[in-house]
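lol ok so funny story. i was supposed to be doing the assay writeup but got distracted and ended up predicting the structure for this chain instead. priorities right. anyway since i did it might as well share w the group, maybe its usefull for someone
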Amino acid sequence: MGLFSKKKKDEAALDEITPEIKVKLDKAAERGNQFEDEEQYEKAIQAWEEGLDLIPEPRQFYSETVWFLAAIGDVFFEQEAYSRAHECFDKARGNLSGEGYRNPFIMLRLGECCLELGDEKNATEYLLRAYMMEGKEIFNMDETGQKYFNFLRTHVDNIV
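and the output, tada:
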């Protein structure tokens, strides 16, 4: 069986995210966002993980998985838990919906995590991908963003 045929077969076997599940996913996302706004990060992560649990297996085929993983990863990143953040963003990047790899925020966070973990080669790759998708604006140019942008400029020619 060719790769295309296998992919079509796998896609056909996927459970649909029903309107009922979609409502529950939206509620889990909103709860997580509210907890994050209230700086109750463990509760936010728990709400988003509950949302992930609602997504049918295999989860890596659904774009909704990307958003929950990115939210969880972002909280870990902000708490400087770079290894855990990297794990979330790497799973999001590898999502078979293709959403993760085309998402500049995920590329940015992966690059930032890689740099914080001492992996300059992958940091350069992911930061460059984010830059190519969104330009300099993706770095927000606050003190933290400037740090990552400056790293990229010193490792890639013609970044302005």
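The radius of gyration is 17 Å. Residues 103-160 form one domain.
back to the writeup now i swear
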